[in-house]
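Per reviewer request, we include the raw input and output of the structure prediction for the construct analysed in the revised manuscript.
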Amino acid sequence: MSQSRSTTPAPNQSEEWMGTALIEARAALETGDVPIGAVVISAEGAVLGTGRNRREADQDPTGHAEILALRSAAATTGSWRLEDCTLVVTLEPCAMCAGAIVLARVPRVVLGSWDPKAGAAGSALEVLREPRLNHWVEVYGGVREAECAELLRGFFEEQRPGAL
């Protein structure tokens, strides 16, 4: 088994990268999708791919921000192995997305808000650091957390008034 080890990204870089993910998340609102955005960053700090939720827009159950960002980055690099990259996402990945992150060999995930109901980076499940898998991912949470959480809270309040 291989375990990825690296230093924590500089806070100012993580916050800037999260800003790009938030732009994607806000764009998801235009199609009625849950406002989640993601961006894949190279080791040099370049954006390799972006994604936003498109389940409603495309009627695709796999249309999650992380999946689309990983696909975009793989197309940009010409490889499914994203070994030197960082995935930045506004909400803790679900089990499907966490599995894709592990399979893409992404060594780092920076997330905005935690998802206690469905998060698979340590909240509800632990997929990204599951010791029985062949790849482990470093997780850095809480980057621009209030901003990410408020975007989601506003969306769901509009969808289900009085439910929260």
